[in-house]
Amino acid sequence: MVVCGLACWRCRWLLPLLLGLAIIMGIIALAGRGWLESESEPYVQQASLWESCTRTPDALNWNCESLMDYGWGRAAAATYLVGFVILVICFALAVIAFSIEILRFNFVRGIGGLLFVVAAFQIIGLVIYPVKFTEDILLMGDNMFSWAYGFGWASTVVVIGCAFFFCCLPNWEDEVLGNIKPTYYYSSPERAPYLN
């Protein structure tokens, strides 16, 4: 016997959990020093969202300059940070929305709309950074946009996916709340003898 359904009320915490994962990846992106790194030895360049650091191949210490001295640096940091703050607010609203017994589905759709705004802000920051960085900062050696920058994009992809789910969830309101009877399918290799 198989019970079919599009969603279940017990699974309601999956979306807030995914938003929490996006927050963790966003924190890693904001704090990480691996937005841009030297691709191979000698490691002479590394950058975060906030600063760019270089050193000569034989030096031990990094010489860092703030990217906040550039207009594009402030714009990239501000747009990504604003998106992150709205993401934290959406996470709190999602926990509240799924905690109450009578789920307000219009409220859930509003969270989905806010998540699209988060994605737009984060994408703007993630596009401004590499374009302007490579134009204005002298790059030494072979470099690559690295792990922290990748966490920023991963957070954005999770946010976009959650935004679609939050916007579409009200279409399955009855299934989520358990207001419809499940459909049972019986699979048997042979028909019962009394049906012949």
Automatic annotation (TrEMBL):
Main location: other
GO cellular component: cytoplasm; desmosome; plasma membrane
InterPro entries for this protein: P53_induced, PMP22/EMP/MP20/Claudin
Location(s) in or outside the cell: Cell junction, Desmosome; Cell membrane; Cytoplasm
Keyword Transmembrane helix assigned: yes
UniProt KW Cytoplasm keyword: yes
Membrane topology term: Multi-pass membrane protein
Superkingdom of this protein's organism: Eukaryota
Keyword set, alphabetical order: Apoptosis, Cell adhesion, Cell junction, Cell membrane, Cytoplasm, Membrane, Transmembrane, Transmembrane helix
One GO term of the biological process aspect: cell-cell adhesion
Membrane-spanning segments: 12-32, 77-98, 110-131, 151-172
Annotated family: Belongs to the TMEM47 family.
Name used for this protein in its record: p53 apoptosis effector related to PMP-22
Organism: Rynchops niger (Black skimmer)
Gene: Perp_0
